[in-house]
Amino acid sequence: MAKIDEILNQEGIDRIAISPYKQYSRGYMEPGNLGTGYVTGLKVDAGTRVKTDDEVLDGIVSYDRAECKNAYMGQINMTTASSFTGVQGHILGYDLLRNPAVDNAKPLFEEDQWDGSKLPIYDGKPLQDTLVEYFGTSDNRRHYPAPGSFIVCANKGVTSYRPKEDRPLRTGESYGVWSAIAISIAKDPVHNSSMFIEDAGTWNTPNEDDLNEFLDRRRRAIALSIAQCGQDANTSFASSWIGFAHVMMKPGEIGNAITVGPYFSIPVDAVPGGSILTPDVDMNIMEQLTLPKWLEKMKYQSIVKDQHIEY
Predict the structure, then answer these.
(1) What radius of gyration do the chain's Cα atoms show?
(2) Residue spans per domain, the chain
(3) Span 77-125, pLDDT tens digits
(4) Record's NCBIfam families (predicted)?
(5) How much is the average pLDDT of 284-306?
(6) Are 180 and 274 in contact (CB under 8 A)?
C-alpha cells in the first residue's frame, strides 16, 4: 500500500477503483464498482470527415472519430466533470502503471507560483501514451470503456470547417483545429486536488508550422492559468504535464479536436495476478507496476512504439 493510501485510509478515504467486468473499464460512480475511488487519464485527439449539407451530423461524426482515434473511447455516454482529480483519484501513467518517461522527462520551462515556488512544465505525451497502451486503439482494443457506459470526463472540444474553394474564411471556418489538456500534480495530495485544464481552438492560416509554434506559446499561457488557479485555492503544484493534438483539414473537410480526462475503474483481469476478492491488493499491484512491466506481464506489445502514435 502506498504511503498516501495509509494516510487517506485513516480519514476513511479509499482510492480503490475496480470494475467487476472482464476486460472493460467502467465509469466512475457506475453501480457495482468496487471501492469509492477512480482512475484518470489524458486524451487529446482530432478527427476529420468530408463535410455534407448537415452540420449536426458532420459534428457528430467528426467528434466520434476523435473519440475513437488513438486511446479508444468510442461508443460511450460522456458526461462532464469540472476538472479535478483529488484524494480519491489515481492518475494513469503517474500513480498507476508509471511510465518511465515521466521520471526521465526534463522540464520545458518553469512558471512562478503564488507561494514563491517554481512549477516545472513537462510535455504530457508520457501520460497520453499510457492511456493508449491501457485502453488500446480502435483496431487493437484492450481495457477500453464498456460500450454504452457512462464515463465522467473533464472535456472540451471545437468543431470547424475548411471551405472547398480558395476564398477568405467566414465565421465557423478555419484551416485547422487543436486541443490541449494539462494535469497539474498537487504538492499535498492528502489535502489538495490535482487539476485538469482543457483548451481547444481553431487555426486560420494554411501553414501547419505556424500552428505548431502557436501551440508552443499556448503551453505558456496554460501554465500561467494553472498558477493563477492555484493561487485562487491557496494550492501549489509539484509539476504540470501539458499535451496537445491538432489536425489540418483538407479543402471541404470538417474537423473536431477534443480534450478528455476520463474518470474510470479498472477491470480485475487488467491486473496481473488480480482477484475480485482483494480489490485493495489489486490496486497495490497496479501502483507497483511500471507501464513496461505491465505490458510484459499482460503479454502486450507496445502500441505506441509499433504504431508510431501521433496526436
Answers:
(1) 19
(2) 3-307
(3) 999 998 899 999 999 999 999 999 999 999 999 999 999 999 999 999 9
(4) hisDCase_pyru
(5) 97
(6) no
Strands (E), 59-193: 77-80, 84-85, 89-91, 109-112, 118-123, 136-137, 140-141, 150-161, 176-186
- Dmax over CA atoms of the chain, in Å, equals 65
Torsion of CA 213, 218, 223, 229, to 10 degrees: 180
Phi and psi torsions of 20, nearest 5°: -75, -10
pLDDT, mean over the chain? 96
Amino acid at 174: S
Assess whether pLDDT exceeds 90 at residue 3: no
C-alpha cell belonging to residue 90: 489515481
Contact criterion met (CB below 8 Å) for 255 and 179: no
Q: How sure is the predictor about 262, in pLDDT bands with cuts at 50, 70 and 90?
A: very high
Confidence of residue 237 (pLDDT cuts 50, 70, 90): very high
Coil/strand/helix, residue 267:
strand
Selecting among 111, 133, 198, 253, the annotated active-site residue is 198
- Length of the chain measured in residues: 311
Q: Is residue 82 marked as binding?
A: yes
Q: Is 64 annotated as a binding residue?
A: yes
Instruction: Record the cell numbers describing residue 125, joined without a space.
Output: 505525451
Clarify whether 198 is annotated catalytic.
yes
CATH top class, domain 3-307: alpha beta
What is the Cα 299 distance to its own chain's centre? Answer: 24
Sequence-separated (6 or more) residues with CB below 8 Å from residue 55: none
What is the residue type of 141? R
- Closest C-alpha to 143, from 51, 17, 9: 17
